[in-house]
Amino acid sequence: VQLQASGGGLVRPGGSLKLSCAASGFTFSSYAMKWVRQAPGKGPERICTITSSGNTFYADSVKGRFTVSRDNAKNTLYLQMNSLKSEDTAVYYCERIIGGLRGQGTLVTVSS
Fold this sequence. Notes:
Layout: E1 2-6, E2 9-11, E3 17-24, E4 33-38, E5 44-50, E6 56-58, E7 66-71, E8 76-81, E9 90-96, E10 106-110
Parallel strand pairs: 2-10
Antiparallel strand pairs: 1-3, 3-8, 4-5, 4-9, 5-6, 7-8, 9-10
């Protein structure tokens, strides 16, 4: 049972990046999922949630800029990030809401 996030990197302010999270070992389609980020020196922040049926919820800090989606056929969760800001710099984690399963994070750095 695991989650594997990928797609992080260095991007300039205003740029875009798409993160992926590959799930394995459980019935991905049955679970609500979320993305959480942790900036240097700060606590974790839940930024978005997607239910098993595809309903989405966003934190105010990313609303209108980030889009969470899922492909149940590929057992993959996505996070499309647009209009990135320096304050979006963080390690991003995907998590299964039930059971608290968390994958290794992927670092996103927004800097000119």
